[in-house]
Amino acid sequence: MQPGLLALQARLQHVFSDPSLLQRATTHRSFSADHNERLEFLGDSVLNLAVASLLYQRLADLPEGDLSRVRANLVKQDTLHQLALGLKISEVLRLGEGESKSGGQQRPSILADALEALIGAVYLDAGYASAEALVHRLFQGVEINPQMQAAAKDPKTALQEWLQGRKMKLPQYRVVATVGAAHRQTFDVECDIPELGLTERGIGGSRRAGEQAAAAAMLATLKAKKL
Q: Are the CB atoms for 58 and 144 separated by under 8 Å?
């Protein structure tokens, strides 16, 4: 294993049984077809569950809606970017030439995605308990308090709370298409609410941005239909 990956492994406090997972988690789609986006998808779900568990323990008196808002503040790109910087993920990221020349190694969305991919990689390598422990270690130095509930809601959080308030299932997000060169891609994302038979789409410069745009479009539709 490369020295940089060994050092990252030490910072993660997890020794991989399958080192190829660590390599894949730090590989951007611009570098290889064997990239980290599927691991990122998996890590996103593991991260949300692990942070939910953390908040359930620490904020015992906070109601469901406020817990959701605090979690949204913790798993947003800005927070994940800062955690990725602390892990020095940029030092081992594998990027294509165009992405590298355009500053991809310092791009917040790429670093946040790589962090989620690493969480997904740990989950596949050693199971949920190890992945949850990693997430809890990462958030040890992050301030967590009920005041976070006062932060402005992003569209995904607002849509989630709207659905939860009506005892409905969470929306499903799916990347429909990616357009453009690897270092300048846009993501066409679909937001689906099966219970209402509604589907909307949004476009963004990252998967997260596309999901937020799709959620915003869905909120606009719900408002227009006066649901």
A: yes
